Amino acid sequence: MFEFLLSGSISATCIVAMVVAVLVYWCIQKMKYNFPPGPPGLPLIGNVFQMSTDRLHEQVYEWSKKYGPVITLRVGRTPSVFVNDIESALEVLVKKSNDFASRKPSSSMQVLSYNGKDIVFGEYSPTWKLLRRLSVKALRHYMQADALNQRVQDAVSEVFKAIDNIKGEFDPSDYMNFIVAHILSGLCFGGKYSFGDPDVTFVAKKLDELNKAMEKGFKEDYFPIIKTIYKTKNFRFFEDVIRELVDEFLKQKYAEANETFNKDNMRHFCDNLILARQELEAEGQDMTSLTEDHFLQTFNDIYMAGIDTSRFTLIWCINYMTAFPDIQEKVQEEIDRVVGKDRMPHIDDRPNLGYTEAVLHEAMRMSSIVPLGIPHMTTRDTEIAGYKIPGGTEVVINHYALHYEPTAWKEVDRFIPERYLDEDGKLGPKPQSWLPFSAGTRVCLGEFVAKPELHLIFASLMQKYKWKMVSGKCANFTTWGNVLGRFCKPFKVIVEKRI
Can you tell me the distance from the alpha carbon of 115 to that of 254, in angstroms, rounded to the nearest whole number? Predict the structure, then answer.
């Protein structure tokens, strides 16, 4: 059978040499790296058929109880490391942040980000650092004014007019969608919008379509070769939605802002982004690496990601308040005491509304809207919890596990806002395991906008109405979602005017 190998032919010798070289390389790699343990998978396939698209965070957390807080899953032969404890998470996000600062591209995220030309999914590089610096500068420019406070008041006032005309129970999601989309549209592009505005409705509809597509998952993410042979129907639908939302809608808005830019009349975030670019150029910063696509994708990050996370957080908050009327009453007592009923809440009220802020914190913990965060990728060979892993490895922080670890949270399954308060009833230091915005180099770009925005909206909603279910109905915490999001099932409420 093996006589041909003994013939001394050059081809036989080459075959033997290649096989030996592959075996030697494989052995060296096995000795060099030490991946964490994990559930056994199938040959060649790995753990693909064990991984749920909407419950992966829960699966990973359960596996971590058996295999340890840091585990490995494989898609084919490609390993991904999942971190489920706060010590290892802080090692990744903070202590060795530069080692884990990049992103591993997937087929769907490459479509969403124009091949990594944004801040959320972009590769860690000098261009990425420059784009983030520019974006932070623009956001801080914009937030120096009282713009956010006015945007929130305009949006919630418009929704109040619509809700006041409702008789009986209704789904609050359309109203939360409008508030957040109104604020983000105004922040990015300026203008005011009435309830039912076609632009705002269009954006919310397209974001819902994206989430539904991601809920089904993409075979192209597991086996990228599929997209070069024949794309699945769901992936083609995903591409069409991105084209409509980004290539057409956002690009038109960006072009209009560029054409009408006047540094003596700053109107919105787009103007401030253009101004920040001019200021950095004046300082001698080389901006040639940033293309128009990079700027467009920055709006994609601020606009789409900002709308999705904020609207679903608010919907969860309403759901929790209907479930826990005693907590809702405490929130309203605090707002009545600090703000009163003759004016709407203001950003300046936030430090004195500690219990209201604590309720938001607890809602974000329990809902864990982005349970697995955005996957990181190692920039070089490094270690996690003593395990040696190579550069180019995907590393995922399981925020759901951090938020539901019983050793970190007393009565972990109970909604307890007081856990965030100090002995004086003020908002205390952030609990170490509370990381809805992540941390370190890749911390959420919009965190310092989202926190006051959500607080203002939530306080305004609680000041205006008492939220409850129809008698006999109970709140439902059943979730649906995808690998990027965890959302509550639709529900209906009734409201009772307070002011």
Answer: 19
Task: State the total domains in the chain.
Answer: 1
403 CB contacts (<8 Å, ≥6 apart)?
A: 365, 366, 368, 409, 433, 434, 435, 436
Residue 416 CB contacts under 8 Å (≥ 6 apart), including other chains: 362, 410
CB 426 within 8 A of CB 113: no
Which of helix, strand or coil describes residue 82?
strand
Write down the pLDDT at residue 141: 67
- CATH number of the domain encompassing residue 472: 1.10.630.10
Q: Report helix, strand or coil for 409.
A: coil
Q: Establish if 291 belongs to a structural domain.
A: yes
Hey, what amino acid is at 131? L
| Domain boundaries, position 66 | 57-497
CA distances from 462 to 70, 200, 327 (A): 40, 24, 11
What is the pLDDT at residue 144?
Answer: 60
Closest CA to 70 of 81, 80, 59: 81
Q: In this model, does residue 6 exceed pLDDT 60?
A: no
Using DSSP's 3-state secondary structure scheme, residue 426 falls into: coil
Mean pLDDT estimate for the chain: 88
Looking at the chain, the whole-number percentage of residues with pLDDT higher than 90 is: 54
